[in-house]
């Protein structure tokens, strides 16, 4: 089954990136009635965004 939405927005290597990603996920989860998992998803996303180096840093 294919998701009805697709977002491939690049995440900039910027200290504000985690908060931007959290806000986008929060909006998406609320729109799809999955707000109940928002806290967990936001935490995981923040960890990934801050811990993973940018693709071109290899």
Description of the structure:
With 58 residues, the chain is mostly helical. The protein has a domain at 17-52. The protein contains 2 helices and no strands. It has helices at residues 17-31, 38-51. Helix 1 packs antiparallel against helix 2 (38-51). It is globular and about 35 Å long. The model has no long low-confidence stretch (mean pLDDT 82).
Oligomer: single chain
> What is the approximate shape?
globular
Query: How many DSSP E strands?
Result: 0
The string of secondary-structure elements, in order, is HH
Task: Pick out the low-confidence regions.
Answer: none
What's the mean pLDDT score?
Answer: 82
Helix content range of the residues, please? Answer: 40-55%
Number of helices: 2
Give the N-to-C terminal Cα separation.
34 Å
* Largest sheet, strands/sense/barrel: none
| DSSP strand content | under 5%
The class by helix and strand makeup works out as mainly alpha
Radius of gyration: 12 Å
Describe the protein's topology.
Layout: H1 17-31, H2 38-51
Helix pairs in contact: 1-2
Summarize this structure as a short list of keywords or feature phrases.
single chain; 58 residues; mainly alpha; 2 helices; 50% helix
In short:
This protein has 58 residues and is an all-alpha fold. 50% of the residues lie in helices and 0% in strands.
């Amino acid at each position: 089954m294919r998701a009805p939405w697709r977002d491939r927005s690049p995440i900039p290597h910027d200290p504000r990136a985690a908060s931007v990603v959290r806000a986008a996920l929060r909006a998406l989860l609320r729109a799809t009635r999955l707000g109940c998992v928002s806290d967990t998803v936001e935490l995981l996303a923040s960890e990934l965004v801050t811990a993973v180096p940018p693709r071109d840093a290899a």
